[in-house]
Amino acid sequence: MSVKIFGFLSRNFYLFVDIMNKKGIYKIVNKTNGKYYVGSSINVDVRIRGHKLKLRKNIHENPKLQSSFNKHGIDNFDFIFVEPIEVNENLLLIEQKYLDICKENPILSYNLNYNAEMPRLGTKHSDKSKKQMTESRSDKLVYSFFNVVTNETFVGKRREFYTTFNLHPQGVYEMIKGNTKSTKNWTLFQKVFCS
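and the corresponding structure tokens:
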């Protein structure tokens, strides 16, 4: 397995290997102390650019990685494409093997947990972030639904809709996202943002 590195030189991005649209495992390595973060993505290039952007803006969700980045600076980090994954291979299963290695020596890892299936498991949130999450979750959209069999209409919030008509929340969600056209004869007619 060859290691393909891309990083920063004089704050300019230099790509040493073409990783556009590549699925695989990557590491973010601190060159001063050897600590690293392991991750996976179906598009490593996009994921790593996202990490870099958040780190530069000081808004990365991983406080251990962000603190180290702030202390050591971008020139002391390498972003490594460790292993390409074939389309038919299970990405999370392979990432889990790398996380199991991290778990054996957590002092060298920036990862907050070691479960590829549930990467946010065990994350502690401040009261402020809990409040922001609650506010963002509150349904601010009003929907108009139409029943193609009974010609009924419903206008209101998503939760009211699925509760009133005893529908499965996931089925309504899939319909709103456009993944299904209807659920139990109901179709989405329109959605309107309400503040």
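(Above: one complete record from the training split.) The radius of gyration is 22 Å.
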